[in-house]
Amino acid sequence: MQKTKLFILVAAFAFFMVNFAAAQVKDTLLKPADTSKIKLSKSLDTVAKKPMTRKDSMKAKYVNPGKVAGRKAVFRSMIIPGWGQLYNMQLLNDGYGTRAGKSQVFQKIYTGGKIAAIYGGATALTLSLMDSRKSYKRFLNEAQYRQDNPGKKLDLTQYSDQGVLDGKSLYKRNSQIVYFSYGLLYAANIIDAYVAARLHFFNIDDDLSFRVMPSVINADTMYGLNLTPVLKLSLKF
Q1: Minimal CA–CA distance to 123: which of 81, 78, 73, 174?
Q2: Domain boundaries in the chain?
Q3: pLDDT digits (tens, 9 = 90+) for 144-190
Q4: E strands along the chain, which residues?
Q5: Where do the DUF5683 domain residues begin and end (predicted)?
Q6: Strand 209-221 to strand 224-236: parallel, antiparallel, or no bridges (unpaired)?
Q7: CA 138, 142, 143, 145: dihedral to nearest 10 degrees?
Q8: How far is CA 194 from CA 89, 153, 188, 198, 218, in A?
Q9: CA–CA dist 155, 153 (Å, integer)
């Protein structure tokens, strides 16, 4: 009997605590927060008027003009071959072209020659491709005709059956080489534009010099001095 009463009291107490906790959670969710009591550790005006320290200024990222110019030249050359070279020619007008004592006219002529070489090479490759494809089709038709008509010749009467097959393979390989050369020319156009744009911002004036002189490295050890002969390179900008 006493165990039954004790069990009823414990159940009633547990039911009361659960209802009380649920009421507290509901009151917390429904009651809006009083934002007027929230205090800012620092006012917005103080933060806005805070001067930039040296530590903050050092966080600014350095922009390499040569790297930016190289990206632009690559992007242009990938879209239209030779456009990157034209961009590098425009860079000569910013004053860097005469820094090394060279004439801008000569550099512009040299850059224009590279553009002419790009399109001249593309034209030569196109003519070679057209000739190879034409000859390949001619030998292919001859080989197909001789295969369908044994003992007969269509056009290339001076070639044997094996000669016709060899000629067909030769011109097919030539066409593949031309396609590969197109890729090389395209890649060379991009690489040249990128290198020229990066070198445009390198300091190569007459004040750049270097000196090589003998020296020694003194490495202290627990047993005494250890002198190692070396060559010392000094660069002067």
Answers
A1: 81
A2: 65-206
A3: 998 888 888 888 889 898 999 999 999 999 999 999 999 999 999 99
A4: 209-221, 224-236
A5: 69-237
A6: antiparallel
A7: 140
A8: 13, 54, 10, 6, 43
A9: 6
